[in-house]
Structure prediction request, 356 residues.
Amino acid sequence: MKSSSSTQVHSDPDVQALDALLERAGLVRNLRGKAAGVTRRMRFERAQPEELSAPAPAPQVANNGVQWLAVPGWEKMSWLWHGFSTRKGGLSRAYCADDAPGELNLGFTASDAREAVAGNRRLLAEAITGDPATPLITLRQIHSTVLVHAVGKDAARPQPWKGDGMMTDEPGLLLGIQTADCIPVLVADRKRHAVAAFHAGWRGTVKRIVEAGVGRMRLEFGSRPEDLVAAIGPGIGACCYGIGDEVLSGFESQFAYARELFREVDDTDAVHIKYPMLFLTQRAPGHSPIGPKLHLDLIEANRRQLLDAGLKPGSIKVVGGCTNCQRELFFSHRGSQGHAGRMLSVIGVRKPASRR
Ligand SMILES: [Zn+2]
Prediction:
C-alpha cells in the first residue's frame, strides 16, 4: 500500500473505483476510524449562514422620499455623483402589498407600469443630483463583458446598448446598473474625473468584467489603478448564495484563489429540515440536500478582482447588506422567486455649474 500526505491509494480495485468517484464529486473517504461509507467533503471552510450575513446598511432619505445608500467617504469628492438605490420610496405598486407605500422599482419589468418606473428613475436622479431631468443611461444587461463608453446622446436612444459595464468622463450624465441580487460595482478616477459602473453576477465575475473594465478605463481615459476608488454595492451575500457545480468549476478554472471564495453552509431550507426522508434516497451519500451546500461570496470575488486590477485595498469600499436577507430594504430575484423589481446603482461626473 502506498500512501501520500493527504490520501491513501488502496490496492482493492473496488475501493480504488470508489475513491475515484468520490474525488470527482469533491469528496474523500474518511480513512480514520469512521464506519465504512462515512464521507466528508474536503477543501472548503464550513460556516453557518448567520456568520456570513452582513448587517443592513442605513439608507439616506432624500427630500422626495427616495431611500438610497452613499459610500462612506465619497462625499468628499465634490465632482462626483453616486448612489445605490433601495426599494424604498417611489411609485411602483407591482411588488408590494395593496396597502403598502409605493416602491422604487427602477427596471422596466413585465409586472410594473412603465410610467411608474420612468417616474421612479426621475425621483432617483433628483435624489442624487438635485435635478430629475439629469440624463440616465442604462444597459440591456446580458451577463457579458461588453463595455460601453457612454456619451450624452445615449440617454435618448430608444433601445439601450447591450452590455454589462459603462464608463464616461462626460459631465452631467448618470450611468445606472440594474440589479436584484447580482453585484453592482462603481469605480471613480479621482485624478481624471472619469467614472464607471459594472454588473457582476457570477457569470460576469467569472468573465472578469470588473478587471476588463479597469483595463478599458486606462485605454479610454488614461486611468491609473492607483488613482481609482471602487464601491461594491448590495447584492446576494455569501449567507444566501448557494450555487451549483457549474459555478464552482467556472471559478476554479479562472482564479487561483477560487476556493477561498466558497464556504460550506448548512442547509436552512425549511422543507428539507422538516421532511428529510423525502430527500434521503434521491442522491448518493455526501450529496444529500440536507447536508452542507456550497455558497459563493460574490462580493469578495469582486473585491479580489479589483485588487488584481491594481486598486489599493483601502480604495475599495463594501457598502454591505444582503438582498435576500434584507428583503424589506432590497429587491431580491432569488428571494422572491423571480418576481422582483430592480435597484439601480448610479455614478456620474457632476456638472460644473452644480458642483459644491
Ligand atoms: Zn443573506
Notes: Residues 59-237+318-354 form a domain with the CNF1/YfiH-like putative cysteine hydrolases fold (CATH 3.60.140.10). The CA atoms of residues 176 and 346 lie 4 Å apart. The radius of gyration is 23 Å.
